[in-house]
Every structure is written in structure tokens, then in C-alpha cells.
Write a structure and sequence with these properties.
Residues 734-752 have a biased composition (Pro residues). By secondary structure, this protein is an alpha+beta fold. The chain folds into seven domains: 19-104, no CATH class; 109-213, no CATH class; 220-432, no CATH class; 460-623 and 684-691, 2-Layer Sandwich (Nucleotidyltransferase, domain 5); 794-969, no CATH class; 983-1089, no CATH class; 1092-1219, 2-Layer Sandwich (Nucleotidyltransferase, domain 5), CATH 3.30.420.10. The strands form twelve sheets. The protein has a five-stranded mixed β-sheet, with helices on one face. The protein has a five-stranded antiparallel β-sheet with strand order 21-20-19-18-22.
Length: 1253
């Protein structure tokens, strides 16, 4: 463009009614050309200075005059003549702008009234683009904004702006057409309301979908005509009713017509007032009654435009096009004699020229004349019914001179049918065949005491009978405690007697009666004898509706839980299916002793009986075991025990249920030795039997195959059954007491009796080595399989050889280090106790490394000043660890991890401490131990160990950092040997997270995409108080430790940590939500790249007044060393901030403090930073306050100590840079986000997810 050519100005032309839009465009245009200050008066006519030369002043004056008149010229080109003719006497652009502003900036109540009237009456027209409609409404909003008073207080201005945006959103949504109703309903249900920009993005997406779903055809629509609501005959002839066959009214107006929906007289189903609207259609909108018909032809340049053709000429044109179409189509001409039907939206009635298609036909004289497209008329000779392969048509006209078989779309709609047109055809559906089932709401009711509500259901029949012949089982679930009772049944008719037994047991054992009995609608629960007994007990029975098992959901879900456990038991033990009864009894016995998330991780057993369950009697289902035989079952030279398979727990006996493969029966005995690490089926053969057949056939299977599954062997006669167990009926499952396998105080698992004739011995099985499936090698599965029991007392551990060996090794280590001297307890002195702590050490993949027994002193009994003084010991800062990893990754330094065995035993004690002899220590039982070394559990043990370690490493030339005393550094002039590592280091806590999920009982729960729900606000009074907060505190404490490598959960853990003193149910639910997120991101961790720089940068942010209880703000910051995240924090500020600027400034002060510590720490590690460290902040006011050293009203209330930011800013230590909110990484530490934004922030933290090999 030539330099003398004027650039193109704004496209909006000022006409006197659009000043707001014109002024906005012109302002942006002038600012883009750096001329806006000429209009505002900031750049005025140059004034000559005293020493200025004439030529320079003339140049400045000429430059100003040129730009000033250039602006006036642009004003003239962008206004109508009646307006720019008023500019003649003005020579200054500012004066012209002020003139236009005075004339056309309307204000006052009358103008606001006019704008409000336009806004209220503004509605979106059909097919009007959403962008076009919003721009018109935005223009009115802008004009209204001109007359709005300016609010000086920033806080009030922010509140008013929020209310204004919400009001604009509501106005905009109210004015939209009904086709946007689904999106409108979704947006209005969100709390808080979304922004107008977000709503626009959703509406534009919906508009695109609507345009995409509209049918597109290569042919062009040539003609569209409107049809009356019933018949075209009303246009050119008398009205005719096809219901009563009378003239004078239409079918929809017939007084005798019957609605197919409500079956009332006087209206059709399309106008039925009781029929609900279709999905996506507002119930208050009128139903469309007119239909259109379209005729398509090939697109041609010679085709006339519809907009230029009168309506009267469309009829002949359509007739001509259809005639050409019929004459050129072989398919259409052949359709006359065939059974091909065409849908016609303008046809008044079904009609056909072929009488052979009619199943019934009668002559008619009442049918109206049919007008065709060329103006001629056809008469119907008969009416009748036609049945096609997919549709039955009644009241169809027979018109011999007709060319095609036509189906009237209008007639189908009047009869209440629904039609869907698509590219592949038309689908017709009767509304009576498409009624959906109503959705079910989650029940939030619960019982307040045991046996207030009992759920019950029957399962069966099983395809395989148990060893006792049972094919069914029935369960009873207590709603309050979730305790479950199970009974095996031979047939369903046994329910009545079993319930009598169950109700009597409840009455005897608990002195209670069942108040409500809820079950499904099975016939057994409607038996007369059963109902008579229920009613005599005063119990209310609640049955679900037919075909509605969801109303008995608690029992149905318990069935699934039991059957899943049964399948797991049978598959893991490789048991035949006929042992499913034993597996079901054992499953219920175990489930009753597992923590339940519905009971806040309390077991059903403890909820019902009030005492914790004992797990000492639990054994692995299907494991190998040895049962002691009775004296008459063996001779003096034969084995005294027999190899059996463990299948469960006794009922009336205090013992275990074991399957004897030799005698083919169940044995109950308390004299059982278990091989819990060996499954019974894994033993290919055994040699501890005395039956001769085992010597002749050593490959005899341990589990016989049922005769129904395989042919019997003629060489193997059936073994005799030793009648040790009587034939007893199936009894319910029971729970044993805390110290024994079975208990007479509660119901126990039933003994499923065996039959008198055992199955014949089967053919041998393959003795191939069975390997576990590949999916069990997964990290979490492998860890769960090997989660073994750890004893809690010495009495419990002393019977296990593995733990005995571990205790022996610990005592040997104590004696080797001369931990104590055995002495007599001096007079006036007291000895503290000690105990054993047992732990199974696992590797990173969850496999067992070793059994560890540690002797721990009961340090809580120590007294200050007597047997201890100072206790403080420094602990390594995790920030130092992460910083060291980041530096080592960049320099590729080799890293080594060292573990000091029995570390505390190396510390020397200076105090005189006496301790009782350890349990199991038999040397000198009358003596006590005078401790020489720092034993675990002593209050001063950490301090003594650190002092010992510090003195040793100093001898090797290490020196502690002055900024972190736990960091020891040794510098060498010979340099370091660098190892090659192309990726860097990875830091995670996957195993710890897996153990945490197991402790919380959430290993099988669903995962979520964010640690907390969007806009989650936790307050101290939400929900109900937890009866026992121990688990809550344990889980939160574990989550705090997990944040060492998981910055993505730092803010969520910070929130739940505020309620440790008095947690409520909502707080516990939030903790479970965090754990569900961890389950889906178990392998997330930090990655320290080897290809990164060592530049330090930070992000600082604050959530102003985010706490709904005390309105204190939240500080969040994070530090990156190159690409490696080394430090972060999410913390609530200690006082209330009066503005967002103050909150952001306090966050900057905390960030600065952490920055100073990190720079000093990195300097000790050899990483120096000569340039200022960049801190990114998204609050420009806070940045300006840091740069401005003048206090004013907005900053007087900020404490002076917060201004250390300004001090170090001026010293060149840090440099503040503004950052947009979308790029503010520290946002993740101050508030919650939706899944999309949250994933974006997690990616900015440079986290990685690497599963173990």
C-alpha cells in the first residue's frame, strides 16, 4: 500500500443508532495505529520550548497536524453524510470525538426502558445462527453498560461483574429456541453457573450437530407446499372425517374419535394432553400440525429459483417433474404391480391401485375426490385393509387409475404412530411398543438397629449339586450390620422351615424379632404357611414388583459378591464344581469378617456382636492340610494323619472342615496342620495313604471327577465310606469366637452332608505344571496375592518357625552390638517394658524379601529428666532429596541407596535406662537389661543414631550443609566418574499406594479422574460425625506421606487434613474420592530428566477467600529446576486477606522464602545462579505493588514482613513475570478443576507414569 493511501477503517458506519458498536470498533482501530492518545487529549498541540529550533518545532507541529487530520478523515469516512457534515468547524480530533459522544451517548431512564424492551422481546428466530443472535444481544448489553455507574471498590466491582455475567447468561438462554433445550437444561443445572463463553462453546457444538444431522441430498428441493392438518380435501372441497365417514368436520375434530394413548373420547393421540412430550421437546410448546411435501429433481443450472416462482405455479411444475421422473424410471413403472409402497407427506389417505393387495375391501361412496398435481381428480371406488410384511394399513383407498402405492404420513401421525426418516428409509413405530422402564434412584435409607430390616433372596438351581445334594441357597442380610446368613437347600420348598429356624435363632440369641422382611416376588415367599408365620410374628413383609429385581438390590448385590468369591475360591484351588456349597459357606464366613466401606470400614461381625473379629483361625481355601486320624483308623505302623483339602470351618464343632480324598467324605477336626502356601490340587500324588490302589495307581487324582463329567473306570471299584459324619441337614453359616475356629454363640457354616454312594474313581489327570495366568503377574494383583498375615503378639508368632527364626536373628544382633547388660534392678529405679513388632519385608514388585522381627522398647513409659533428656533429631527434607535427584539426573551422577541394618542399635546412650527382659529371652529371668545402645522405641533413639551417623561420615571427609544439616557433602579435586543414563531418574510410591488402597478396602472400587469433585467445599459441620476417627486420621496421614511424590493430590490432601480433630462423613467421603483417584493413577510419579537445564523458576498463586468457613486464602507455589519439579506447597494463609491482591502478595512472600532456601541449598550442591530467579504470578496488582515502594490505602494493612519480596526484588535475587491464568501451573495447588483442565495442569508438572517391568 502506498504511504499516502489511507488504510481501510472500521466496517461499521455510524448512523446515529449504533454509536456503541462504532465507538468500540474505532477505539480498537486507533489503538492499533497508536493514535488513540490524540483522541483522548493526552497528545495535544505541540508547544515550542525556549531552546527549540524553528525547523524542529515546525516538524513536530506538522507531524501532529498530519495525524490529527488523518483521524478526522477516518471519522468522516465511517459516518453517514448527515453526521460528518457537522465536523466543518472542528480542527481537533478530540473535539470531534467529544461531539459525537455528547450527541449519541444516550442515557437516562427512558433510554434504559427502551433497551430493556428490546432485550425482553428479543427471541431467536428458527435457523438463526447462534453467533448472529448473540451479537445482537451483545450490542444491547454494551449500550446498557454505558449508563452503568462505576464501582470503585474492587471487591464490589467483582461481585457485580459476576452477577451481571450470570444475568446475561440467563437472558441469553431464555431467548433461545426449543432445539437448544437439552444444552440449556444441562447448563442451568451446573453449580455454579458456567460462564457465557463456556455456554457458547456448548451451544455451538450442539448447533453443529443439528446441522450435521439434517438430511443432505444431491438433488435440490424444487417445491414445498403446506397441507392442512387433516386432509387436502378441505382446500378444494367439503371436509370429510375418516372416523365416522361424515362430512363437515375433520378426523381430529370428530366428537367420537378415541385417543390411542389415554383411551378418552374427543381427541387424537397427537393432541393428547396427558401424553408426555418427546425427549428434547418442551412440554409447553404447541405441537406442529402442518406437514410439508417435497418433490426432488436433479440439480440443473436451468432450474428456476424457488424464491422467484409464485406459489400458484408450483403445482404444475411439480406435476411436470414427477411425470418426467415416472416416465424415465423403470423401477417406478414396475412398482405398480408389485408390493412397493412410497411414503407421501401430502397424501390425505393411504391409497393403492392394486386390489390384490387388499385383505378386506368394501365399496364406498363417501370418499372425497383426490386432486393430483396436474389439477385432475381421482375417485376411490373401495376402502379396505392392506397388510404388508412390516406394516398393516387400515382405511386404505382403492383408486384404479393411481400409478403408485402411497402411504399417508399424516394419517399415520393422526393414529399416534412415530416416524423417523433417514437416508436408508423410514421407520414406523407404535408408541405402545416403545414405553421405556423408569429409572431407579439410589436409596439413601438405612436401619438404626439390628434386625429392623432383613433382606432375603434365593439363588439357584445350580447346574451341579453339592456333595450333599443341594442345588439352592438362601441368604438373609441384616440391613444395619450387613451381616449375612446362608442356608443350603435341596429345593425351594424348604424356605418356610428355614425361615422359622432363622427367626427362632434371632429371637433366642439376640432377644429381638424381625420388624421388616424384604424380598423379591418369588412364589416361595408367597406360600401360605410362610405368610401365616410372618404375620403371627408381627413382621411386615415387603416384596418387590414382578420383574423388578432392583427393588431388592441389597440381596442381589450380596448374591453377586458371594458368587464372585465362590468362583475365585474354586478357580484358585482348582476344586470341582460340586464343592461350590463349601465355597459359598466359606465365602460368607469371610465376608462377615471383612471391613465394609458401607460401614466406614467396620466389619459386619463387629457391627453385630460389638467385638472385633479374630483372624487367627482363617486359612487359605483349598490349601493342603493334615488331619489327625482317630486311633481306630490306623494301625501302630501306619501314618497318624491324612492329607486332606481344607474347605471351611465347623458349625457345631470347634474345628475345621476338610475333604478326605481317600474316604470321599468331609472330616471335622481341630487337630489339623496346614500347608497354606501349598494348594491341595498342586500335589500331583501323595504317599501317606494306606489304600493298596494308590500303590498300583500312584497317579490317582486328588479330586475325583464326577461321573457326569467323565466316564468311570471299570478297573477302579468304589471305595467304602467310613461313616464318621452323620447325614445331617444343611445348617447356616456361623462366626467363631475371637480365639477359636468356631463359636456356639453365633450361627456357623452348614455341614453339607455326603451321599452314601461316592462316585467311582476317575481316570487320571494330566500332571503338567500349572502356571498362574498372565494377568496375575500384574503389579497390584501380585501384591494382593502375597499379602500375608503379620502377627501382633509374641504368643501368636512363637508357633511359626519363620517368625521364631526372625526373633532369633534379632536377639543375636542385639547381643553382637552389646545392646544391654543384665543387671539387678537398683532400688528406686523402674524398668520400662518392651515388645516384639513383626513385619514382612517386600520387594518393589510385592514379593517377599524376608521376615523381620524387631524388639521395641516401650518408650512411652520414660520420664523426662530421669531416663531421657533431648529427643529432637533432624530429618532429611524431601525437597533436598528431590533437588539432589534433579541435579544428579542432569549431570548423570551414579546414585546408590544404602540401608544400615539395625540402625538405631548403633547409637550410644548417655542416660541410665533399664528395660525388662524381652519375651522369649530365657537367660537370667530375674535380671533386667541396662541399655548401652539406643533401642527402637526410646525417645532419644533417633537423636543418638543421628549423632553416631554424623560423627562417622565426618571421619570420611563429609561435611553437613549449613542450610540442611541432614545433607552431607564431600568435594574432591579428582572429579566424579559419570555413568551413562539417557532418561534420568523416576521417583514414585506405587507399592505404598497399593498398600494404602488395601488398608482402605478400595482395591476393587471404580476410579475417578480428579482427586476432588469440581467446586468441592468442605466445612466442619457438613455430614454426620464419625463414631471412630482413627481410620480417617490414618488414611490422611498416609496421604500426606504420599504427596512426597504426588503433587497432583497436594491440594486435596491439604483440604482433608484440616478436619483431623473432628471428621465428618463428608470428609471421609472426600478421602475415599482421593483414594479412588490414586487407584487410577497408582504409577504416577516424578521424573527427573537427564536432558534438562539447571535453571530455577517458580510459579506463585493464591485462591482468595476460598475457605467457606473462615474466608482465609490458600497459598500455592511450585519450583522447577529445569524440567524437574523439586518443591511445592498448598497451604492456608494464617490471616484473612481483604483483597485478592493481598492474598497473591502473601503467596509471593511465601514463595520468596522458599526461593532463598533453595538457592542456598543448590549452592551447597555446586549449582549457582548468578541471574535472578523468575517467579511467575498471574496478578498484575501484586507485581506492581512489589515494584512500587510507595504505600497507599490498599497496601497499608499488609504487614511489613511480607515486603521481603520487594527487598529481594531490588537486590536482584528474583524477577517477577506476569503469566496468564491458563498457563499458571500453581493453580493445581489452590483449587479444584474439571477433568480436562486438571489433566492439563498435571502435564505441566512434568509427571510421568511408568509401570514396573
Amino acid at each position: 500500500m502506498d504511504k499516502n493511501e489511507l488504510p481501510k477503517t472500521v466496517t461499521t458506519i455510524l448512523n446515529g443508532h449504533n454509536y456503541v458498536l462504532w465507538s468500540q470498533d474505532m477505539r480498537s482501530f486507533l489503538k492499533g495505529h497508536r493514535l488513540w492518545r490524540y483522541v483522548t487529549g493526552e497528545i495535544q498541540v505541540p508547544v515550542r520550548s525556549k531552546d527549540e529550533e524553528d525547523t524542529k518545532f515546525a516538524d513536530r507541529l506538522e507531524d501532529w497536524d498530519c495525524k490529527n487530520h488523518q483521524i478526522i478523515t477516518w471519522f468522516r469516512h465511517s459516518t453517514v453524510p448527515s453526521i460528518h457534515q457537522q465536523f466543518g468547524r472542528y480542527e481537533n480530533a478530540k473535539d470531534v470525538w467529544d461531539l459525537l459522544s455528547r450527541h449519541y451517548t444516550t442515557a437516562g431512564l427512558s433510554h434504559e426502558y427502551q433497551l430493556w424492551g428490546l432485550l425482553v422481546n428479543m427471541k431467536q428466530t428458527p435457523r438463526q445462527p447462534i453467533n448472529e443472535f448473540l451479537s445482537g444481544m451483545q450490542s444491547i448489553w454494551d449500550q446498557m453498560e454505558q449508563s452503568t455507574h462505576i464501582v470503585k471498590d474492587p471487591a464490589d466491582a467483582a461481585i457485580l461483574a459476576t452477577k451481571r455475567d450470570q444475568f446475561h447468561l440467563i437472558q441469553f438462554l431464555m431467548a433461545l429456541t426449543s432445539e437448544f433445550e437439552p444444552v440449556r437444561a444441562t447448563l442451568l443445572q451446573q453449580v455454579p453457573l458456567p460462564t457465557l463463553e463456556f455456554a457458547m462453546s456448548q451451544l455451538l457444538s450442539h448447533e453443529t450437530r443439528l446441522r450435521t444431522l439434517q438430511p443432505h441430498h444431491p438433488d435440490a428441493v424444487l417445491a414445498t407446499a403446506t397441507r392442512p392438518s387433516s386432509s387436502s380435501s378441505s382446500r378444494n372441497g367439503p371436509k370429510y372425517c375418516k372416523n365416522c365417514h361424515k362430512q363437515g368436520h375433520l378426523l381430529a375434530e370428530c366428537p367420537t374419535i378415541q385417543c390411542r394413548y389415554c383411551h378418552k373420547i374427543g381427541h387424537i393421540v397427537y393432541n393428547c394432553p396427558t401424553k408426555p412430550p418427546k425427549p428434547g421437546q418442551s412440554g409447553i410448546l404447541p405441537r406442529p400440525v402442518n406437514h410439508s411435501v417435497a418433490v426432488a429433481a436433479e440439480d440443473s443450472p436451468s432450474d428456476p429459483s424457488l424464491s422467484s416462482i409464485p406459489v400458484s405455479e408450483l403445482g404444475p411444475m411439480v406435476f411436470t417433474m414427477v411425470k418426467q421422473f415416472l416416465s424415465s424410471s423403470d423401477k417406478v413403472s414396475s412398482a405398480v404391480s408389485g408390493n412397493t409402497w412410497y411414503f407421501d407427506s401430502a397424501c390425505c389417505n393411504h391409497m393403492s391401485p392394486d386390489s390384490q393387495l387388499f385383505s378386506s375391501i368394501i365399496p364406498t361412496t363417501h370418499a372425497p375426490l383426490i386432486q393430483t398435481a396436474n389439477g385432475s381428480h381421482l375417485a376411490a371406488s373401495h376402502t379396505g385393509s392392506v397388510s404388508t410384511s412390516t406394516l398393516s394399513l387400515s382405511d386404505t383407498y382403492l383408486i384404479p387409475n393411481l400409478t403408485l402405492n402411497l402411504i399417508s404420513v399424516g394419517q399415520l401421525c393422526e393414529l399416534g404412530f412415530d416416524l423417523w426418516f433417514g437416508s436408508s428409509g423410514c421407520r414406523v413405530q407404535d408408541p405402545r411398543t416403545n414405553q421405556p422402564a423408569l429409572s431407579f434412584n439410589n436409596s439413601d435409607s438405612f436401619s438404626h438397629a439390628s434386625f429392623d430390616l432383613i433382606h432375603s433372596d434365593i439363588w439357584g438351581p445350580s447346574p451341579t449339586a453339592t456333595v450333599g445334594g443341594s442345588k439352592y441357597f438362601v441368604i438373609f442380610v441384616d440391613d444395619f450390620s450387613r451381616y449375612t446368613w446362608i442356608y443350603l437347600m435341596h429345593n425351594r420348598s424348604e424356605l418356610s422351615q428355614i425361615y422359622r429356624t432363622f427367626a427362632q435363632m434371632i429371637s433366642t440369641q439376640f432377644s429381638k424379632t424381625i420388624k421388616i422382611f424384604r424380598t423379591d416376588n418369588a412364589m416361595e415367599y408367597r406360600d401360605s404357611q410362610f405368610l401365616d408365620f410372618i404375620h403371627t410374628q408381627g413382621t411386615i413383609i415387603q416384596r418387590s414388583c414382578a420383574g423388578t429385581s432392583q427393588q431388592n438390590g441389597r440381596a442381589e448385590r450380596k448374591h453377586r459378591h458371594i458368587l464372585d468369591s465362590v468362583r475365585a475360591f474354586l478357580i484358585s484351588a482348582s476344586c470341582p464344581e460340586r464343592f461350590w456349597g463349601e465355597a459359598a459357606l466359606t465365602a460368607v464366613y469371610t465376608i462377615n469378617r471383612l471391613p465394609s466401606s458401607a460401614l466406614q470400614n467396620v466389619t459386619p461381625f463387629e457391627r453385630l456382636y460389638g467385638t472385633p473379629a479374630s483372624y487367627s483361625s482363617l486359612r487359605v481355601f483349598g490349601c493342603a492340610c493334615f488331619v489327625l486320624l482317630q486311633p481306630h483308623e490306623h494301625s501302630k505302623l501306619e501314618p497318624r494323619s491324612r492329607l486332606c483339602c481344607f474347605l471351611g470351618y465347623g458349625i457345631e464343632h470347634k474345628g475345621y472342615r476338610c475333604w478326605d480324598p481317600i474316604s470321599q467324605r468331609l472330616r471335622i477336626s481341630r487337630h489339623v496342620v496346614f500347608w497354606e502356601h501349598t494348594m491341595f490340587n498342586s500335589l500331583s500324588k501323595f504317599t501317606t495313604c494306606s489304600t493298596p490302589s494308590f500303590f498300583t495307581n500312584p497317579s490317582l487324582p486328588l479330586f475325583p471327577i464326577s461321573p457326569a463329567d467323565s466316564p468311570t473306570s471299570p478297573l477302579a471299584p468304589p471305595l467304602a465310606v467310613d461313616p464318621v459324619l452323620d447325614q445331617t441337614p444343611d445348617l447356616p453359616l456361623a462366626a467363631p469366637p475371637a480365639d477359636s475356629p468356631a463359636s456356639p454363640q453365633e450361627p456357623a457354616p452348614p455341614v453339607d452332608p455326603v451321599t452314601d454312594q461316592p462316585p467311582l474313581l476317575p481316570l487320571r489327570r494330566s500332571d503338567r505344571v500349572r502356571a498362574p495366568p498372565a494377568h496375575l503377574r500384574d503389579y497390584s494383583c501380585f501384591s494382593a496375592v502375597l499379602s500375608l498375615h503379620e502377627p501382633h503378639t509374641y504368643r501368636e508368632a512363637c508357633t511359626n518357625p519363620l517368625w521364631q527364626q526372625a526373633m532369633t536373628e534379632e536377639l543375636q544382633a542385639l547381643e553382637k552390638t552389646h545392646t544391654w547388660d543384665l543387671v539387678d534392678l537398683p532400688h528406686g529405679k523402674s524398668a520400662i517394658g518392651c515388645k516384639w513388632v513383626y513385619k514382612i519385608k517386600t520387594k518393589s514388585d510385592g514379593s517377599i524379601e524376608r521376615y523381620k522381627a524387631r524388639l521395641v522398647a516401650k518408650g512411652y513409659a520414660q520420664e523426662y529428666g530421669i531416663d531421657y533428656e533431648e529427643t529432637f533429631a533432624p530429618v532429611a527434607r524431601i525437597t533436598s532429596v528431590r533437588s539432589l535427584l534433579a541435579i544428579a539426573a542432569v549431570h548423570q551422577w551414579p546414585l546408590f541407596q544404602m540401608d544400615v541394618k539395625n540402625a538405631f542399635l548403633n547409637g550410644d546412650l548417655t542416660e541410665e535406662v533399664y528395660m525388662q527382659a524381652p519375651p522369649g529371652y530365657s537367660d537370667c529371668p530375674d535380671k533386667v537389661c541396662l541399655l548401652r545402645r539406643a533401642l527402637y522405641g526410646l525417645k532419644q533413639a533417633p537423636r543418638a543414631w543421628f549423632a553416631k551417623f554424623s560423627s562417622i561420615v565426618h571421619q570420611f571427609g563429609f561435611s553437613s550443609s549449613s542450610h540442611d544439616t541432614t545433607l552431607f557433602i564431600r568435594r574432591s579435586d579428582k572429579g566424579l566418574e559419570v555413568s551413562s543414563d539417557s532418561t534420568g531418574y523416576y521417583l514414585s510410591q506405587a507399592k505404598y499406594a497399593s498398600d494404602l488402597l488395601s488398608r482402605a478396602g478400595l482395591t476393587d472400587t471404580k476410579v475417578v479422574s480428579t482427586p476432588l469433585e469440581m467446586n468441592a467445599r468442605l466445612t466442619p459441620l457438613d455430614g454426620t460425625p464419625l463414631s471412630d476417627a482413627t481410620l480417617y486420621r490414618q488414611l490422611v496421614g498416609s496421604l500426606v506421606y504420599l504427596t512426597v511424590t504426588r503433587p497432583d493430590i497436594a491440594h486435596a490432601v491439604h483440604l482433608v487434613s484440616q478436619f483431623l480433630s473432628a471428621p465428618h462423613s463428608t470428609h471421609y467421603a472426600a478421602v475415599l474420592h482421593i483414594l479412588r483417584y490414586i487407584k487410577g493413577t497408582m504409577f504416577h510419579g516424578l521424573h527427573f530428566s537427564a536432558h534438562s537445564t539447571l535453571d530455577l523458576c517458580a510459579y506463585s498463586d493464591a485462591d482468595w477467600a476460598g475457605d467457606p468457613t473462615d474466608r482465609r486464602s490458600t497459598t500455592g507455589f511450585c519450583f522447577f529446576l529445569g524440567d524437574s519439579l523439586i518443591s511445592w506447597r498448598s497451604k492456608k494463609q494464617h490471616i484473612v486477606s481483604r483483597s485478592s491482591t493481598e492474598a497473591e502478595y502473601r503467596a509471593l512472600a511465601d514463595t520468596t522464602s522458599e526461593l532463598l532456601a533453595l538457592r542456598w541449598l543448590l549452592e551447597d550442591m555446586g549449582v549457582t545462579h548468578s541471574s535472578p530467579t523468575v517467579i511467575h504470578c498471574d496478578n498484575r496488582s501484586a507485581i506492581q505493588i512489589a515494584h512500587n515502594d510507595v504505600f497507599h490505602e490498599r497496601t497499608k494493612h499488609i504487614e511489613i514482613d511480607c515486603h521481603l519480596v520487594r527487598h529481594h526484588l531490588s537486590a536482584g535475587i528474583l524477577h517477577l513475570l506476569p503469566v496468564s491464568s491458563s498457563d499458571q501451573t500453581a493453580d493445581i495447588f489452590t483449587k479444584t478443576f474439571p477433568p480436562g483442565r486438571f489433566r492439563d495442569l498435571v502435564s505441566k508438572l512434568k509427571m510421568a507414569s511408568v509401570k514396573p517391568p
